[in-house]
Amino acid sequence: MNLYFIYVCLNSSTVFNSTKGSRKYVDILSTIGSVLSMCTCTVMFYKRRIEIQSLLIQIDQTTLQTSVSQQTINWLKIVLFCDIIVIAASFPFSERPFFSFFCFFLPTLVNIFDHLFLDDILTYLGAEFDLISQHLKQRRDSMALPDTRIVDDIQKLSLRHCDLSKLTLQFTRCFEVTTLTAMMMWFGYIVNSIFFLVFDLIYTKHLETRILKFAGALIYQKILILWLCIMLKMYTRTEDKVANRAVGYVHDIWNKFVMMQKINSEVHHLQLISIRFLNTKPKFTAMNFFPLDWSFCHVLIAAITTYIIILIQFKI
């Protein structure tokens, strides 16, 4: 499948020859990004399969959940799947169906489902962190009289929390390479689609053709933006869940001991536990090239605007 994909991309020179000027080079760069992303995904899927299987077993052994947690409706995913179905149904009516499918739609789909799989795992791990926070909250609320035995319970929860944090970092590192190439491909696709959208609006004469191209480009850009939002949301959500609530509950328990004036060496250990919670908060990046949080959107918007202006100036 991957070899056929490369063949179709490399055999699309007739498509490149039919375009002129900056459109030709934008098409070429986008196709190169597609080939790079698909080749990287194929290699990484093979290399990381055993490591992911091992990490999933460790996660299953470390977790506290005894039943499946209730899942909320993710409207971003629902809208994303609807847009994917619309784009897939429109391929038979497009001008270059095979080229568009293999060079644009297929790499996008593979990387989207790669991140959706990671999102499911991080959602499960996030539920585990919430469960630990609930246990700490129960310890805080049930603390009517000073009882130093609660420190031992908090210590066990903090160690379990630390193990889950390490597993979360190890699991996300398995996806760093594919995330890096996916974002490179994403940037090329979004610049390509916006530039072609502006180009077609200016130079396409037929109103019906212009409306169809405009609608298709908007839906594809919407898919790319939803994919980016889902990816950044899952990383920021996991970062927020790892330590923020747990540290607050530990501080509340410490304050109760202080108010009761029952401070001893065991209670002082709560300070070390609090520091452990703070130090286990992960920071997700794409191999340290850029952070995987909402601040990444600022960089993307600035870069996309710059490149679109440059391409339009070349065309003019």
From TrEMBL:
Keyword Cell membrane: yes
Keyword Transport: no
Example of a GO biological process term: signal transduction
Recorded superkingdom: Eukaryota
Predominant location: membrane
Keywords of this entry: Cell membrane, Membrane, Receptor, Transducer, Transmembrane, Transmembrane helix
GO CC terms in record: axon; dendrite; neuronal cell body; plasma membrane
Function according to Swiss-Prot or TrEMBL: Gustatory receptor which mediates acceptance or avoidance behavior, depending on its substrates.
Family per record: Belongs to the insect chemoreceptor superfamily. Gustatory receptor (GR) family.
Protein name as it appears in the record: Gustatory receptor
Species for this entry: Tenebrio molitor (Yellow mealworm beetle)
